[in-house]
Structures are given as C-alpha cells and as structure tokens.
Fold each of these.
Amino acid sequence: MGDSTDQHTTARPACPVCGLAGTAIVYGYPMPETFAAADRGEVVLGGCVIEPAMPTHECPLGHRWADDESYGEDVS
Ligand SMILES: [Zn+2]
C-alpha cells in the first residue's frame, strides 16, 4: 500500500509483432489534454467503451496488443 508506480506515459513497450515503440491507448472520456496528447501522437484514443481484454498499446503500423504482463516487470 502507498506504493504508486508512476510509469504511465513514460513506458513505451515494443510491439510484439514488428518491434516498433508502442503508443499507449487511452480509454474512457478524453480530457482536453488527452486530445492534445493524441494530436502529438503521444497517446491513441481508444474510445469510451471499455471491455475485458482490450489492447493497451498500438504501434505505428497499427498492431494492437495488451501489455499487462510486462507491467512492473523488468527481467534482465
Ligand atoms: Zn507493430
């Protein structure tokens, strides 16, 4: 408890398909700053509908995947 890991917008996991850096997909109602970030290509707007097993990242080629497994894990 009280352990807040803030790796929200800094982590850019590689696409499992092509290896390019992924962009985080933001779900829910976008804030104005979220629109601005999407405009800069920092995030992808995923829409307001949230379902199980939604992808969390999208690469420049349009591949989408869920990055749950690498959350907080740093195996070297
Ligand atoms: Zn890709």
Amino acid sequence: MGKSSSLVLNKVSEQFPAPFKKSFYFLPISLSLITLLFIFIYDITTTVDVTHNLPQTDPYLLDRSLPTDNIPFDQNSENGDDLVADPSRLSASARANKWLGNLFGISNGNYTNNIEAYHDEDIFLEDYKQMNKSLKIYVYPYPQDHPFKQVFEPFESDPVGNFASEHYFKKALMKSHFITEDPDEADFFYMPFSIALIRDDHRLDIAGISVFVKSYIQNITNIYPYWNRTGGADHFYFACHSKGRFAFDKAFVAKLNVIQLLCSSNLYISSYVAHKDAPVPQVWPRLDAPPIPNLLTRERKQLGFFSGGINSRTRVYLLKVWDNDTEIFTHHGRLPTPYSEQLLGSKFCIHARGYEVNSARIADAIYYGCVPVILSNHYDLPFTDILNWKSFSVIVNERDIPILKRILQGISSEEYAMLQSNVIKVRKHFQWHTPPTDFDALHMSLYELWQRRSVVKVKS
Ligand SMILES: *[C@@H]1O[C@H](CO)[C@@H](O)[C@H](O)[C@H]1NC(C)=O
Ligand SMILES: *[C@@H]1O[C@H](CO)[C@@H](O)[C@H](O)[C@H]1NC(C)=O
Ligand SMILES: *[C@@H]1O[C@H](CO)[C@@H](O)[C@H](O)[C@H]1NC(C)=O
Ligand SMILES: *[C@@H]1O[C@H](CO)[C@@H](O)[C@H](O)[C@H]1NC(C)=O
Ligand SMILES: *[C@@H]1O[C@H](CO)[C@@H](O)[C@H](O)[C@H]1NC(C)=O
C-alpha cells in the first residue's frame, strides 16, 4: 500500500510543477472538511424531524403481542395527561405545508403518483382477469354432526354489524365460481372457521380460540394430505374479529405459513405479518346512500366528522382538541341526528383508531362519498398493494391532531374534487354482495390471495 502510493506520488511530482503539488494536498483536505460540514448541518436539520415521526421507544424492543395503543404518544410519561404533543416540536404551518406537499407528490421536488386511484390500473385489470378465470379454492368439509357446526356454516341471513365482513366473505365465496370440489385443481385450501362465532360460543370463548384452531389443524393434517405438502402455505382463513390475533397462538407452523385475510391488520402485533397476510376492509353493511351523482353534488357544509366510543388514547386526544369546534364535529355516545346525515353532510369523515387500528368508519365514509381521514398509525390499509390510498383519503399522523383543521382547510376545492372522485372510483371494492359481483370486497380479497399463490406442492 505504502509502496504503491509513494510510487504514484513520485510519478505526480515528476510530471507536475511545485505549485500544483501544494494544491494536490489542499484540494482533498478542504473537500473533506466541506463534506463534514455538510453532514453536520444535515444531521442537525433532520434529526428533529426524524425523532418526531418515530415512536419514542425503539419499535423493535416492543412486545409485538401487546395491544400497542400507546405507541403514537410519549412513552416516557406515566400519567395519562400527556396527550397533547409537545408544542415546541410542532411548528404547525410548516408541518401542514409539508403534509400538503406529500399529498400532491411534490415532496423533495419529485413527482409521485397521488392522483390515480390504483398503483397501476392496467396491470391490476389484466391480472384480475387471470385470477377471475383460473383461481380455484377448495373448502374443507366438516361433519354435519360436528358439535361446533355453526362455527363453519355460512350465515343464512344477511350479515349485519361490526363483523359482517367475516360472515359475508364465507357466504359470498360459497356462491362464487371460485369453489372447486376437486382438491387437485385447487390453488388454495379454505379453513372455514369463524373467529367471531368461536368467540361467541360460551363453550369456547376467547381462551378457547387457539385451542380450537390447533385441534382443527391437527384434524385436517391427519385426515387430508394437503397440509403436509406445503406446511399450510396454501391454506387460508378470513377474520374480522380482532380476537383473531390469538388464532395461531398454539399452532406455530400455521403462524408461519397460513395466509390470513384480516381486518385488524396492525403492523405492531405479532399475529399479523405484512405481505404474507392481507388486510381486508371492515364493512358495516349500509343500504341507504343516495345514488352516486347525488353523493358528488351534495352540499357538505361540515368540514369534519367523528363519532364513536372513546376507547383509545387517539380518540381521547381527538375529542380533547376538537370537542365543541364549529367546523370539526366530534361526538361520543348516541348521535342526536342520523349517522348517515352526518356522513353525507361532511367533507371529511374521520377514522380514529379505537381498541384496534381498524373500524368500519372508513368503509362508511367511502359508502357515503365522504373523504376518509385516517388517524391510525401502523394500520396496514385494506388492499393497499392495489389501491393508492393517498389519492382518496387523507392519512394524518396521530400526533398531528392539533393541526388537523389546518390540514383539512388547506385542501383546495380542486384537490377535494380529485380525492372525492377517487372515493367513488374505489367504492365498489368496499362492499359485499351475495352472490358476489365483479370487483366487490370478495373479489378483491381473493385477488389478494391470488397474489400470494404458486407454492410448489410436494406430493407425499
Ligand atoms: C427523484 O427521482 C430521481 C429519478 O427517479 C431519483 O434518482 C432521485 O433520487 C429522486 N430524489 C429524491 C429526493 O427522492
Ligand atoms: C369474472 O368471471 C365471471 C364468471 O365467469 C364473469 O361473468 C365476469 O364477467 C368475469 N369478470 C371479468 C372482469 O373478467
Ligand atoms: C378434531 O377431531 C376430534 C376427534 O374426532 C374431535 O373431537 C374434535 O372436535 C375435532 N376438532 C375440531 C376443531 O374440529
Ligand atoms: C402429516 O404430518 C404429520 C406430522 O408429521 C403426521 O402426523 C400426519 O399423519 C401426516 N398426515 C398425513 C395425511 O399423512
Ligand atoms: C365543550 O363544551 C362542554 C359543555 O359546554 C364543556 O363541558 C366542555 O368542557 C367543552 N370541551 C372543551 C374541550 O372545551
């Protein structure tokens, strides 16, 4: 090393006159000093922002199995009164402006696609057609005298309420052309147990969920050859009940391999694995929206709307800041006016996380043509690998609740029209039908499955 560099120096001194020799050292040294200075400045100007956006505790140290309702806020304070973010870190106008820059793709001077409802609509449509033609699903049968038969049966009546998606999925799937009786032609194997119904069965209850699922998997493993070929990697189930997080607590291989279609797609719980599992929407079936043209032309006098139980720090914070505001209407308890009137009369409908990251509020907003505002950090949003959420919703860090009004007011009427027209465009993906219809929530959920196919099946 020393030899070769002195050789180079000798060569240089031979070829160049003395003044150059000085600058030979001066240039690199001054350059490196300037670089160090830049790094230093960069460090100072960016550190504040980075720490601001990240959880206060190292996320890798968090126990991912705990409900992590407290992540967005100050982790160091024990008393519950620290909900208002540190004002010294909150230069409101700067943050609102930055947010708007992000929405319209001008962050760091680079254009990003925040206008189109899909990441790539052409590819999606092409692939969807393939899925629609080829996808085949085998549903594991269950004995008619099974003591927990109701856990496997599709609903007779129309599903309602918070877990309707879970029941609709099975009901619609069974009526679809994706079902095959021949396991040899199946791409996927469906385990038709319902977490919500296990949860409701007093013989099983929450503690029984993981015991039941373990026993179920043992049984299909013993009776059929399909599980053992892939370790369950071409097996799936669907759950909208948040207690689905306990399903595989006693089934380790299932936890690693089975594809879960889940409403509670929280990136900070160990039972949800992004990219392996797929996020699906929680939908409370509603039927009373006016036709689409009326949704668009309707006068929406109220800026923002939230209503719901106060069961999380996010919601406490939201009400603490915006309770009694004249433009953002927040409410807990029973609404004095019909819910649909609020959703139809507001420009923005707020989804603030509750016990879990998800709720039916996003699908409600979309159904009534209201642009959803998502205050739920670490929520892996439904169909997010297909849909471009920034084009039809407003995603706000929970910490930014104090500047929420400024963010919403900063959205011009042209920008709002763009967001709302995309809400209408994606609306069909957030609805269930029996029998299912093209591009509805069933087809989209199955498309998510389709993206996770092609496991080589080793025959035993
Ligand atoms: C902007 O885009 C160009 C080309 O895609 C890329 O090379 C560059 O790194 C981007 N800059 C930023 C700040 O993202
Ligand atoms: C999907 O398949 C069904 C049944 O074969 C068919 O009626 C429908 O037109 C197909 N949709 C698309 C988009 O290919
Ligand atoms: C598994 O099989 C056993 C024996 O037939 C039965 O008692 C049990 O209920 C089955 N478990 C499930 C979850 O189906
Ligand atoms: C699948 O593998 C398990 C464990 O290795 C074994 O007990 C079971 O009998 C196998 N199932 C079939 C159908 O061969
Ligand atoms: C909202 O108004 C009610 C009733 O006047 C009052 O009790 C409450 O403290 C107010 N909330 C805020 C955040 O000002």
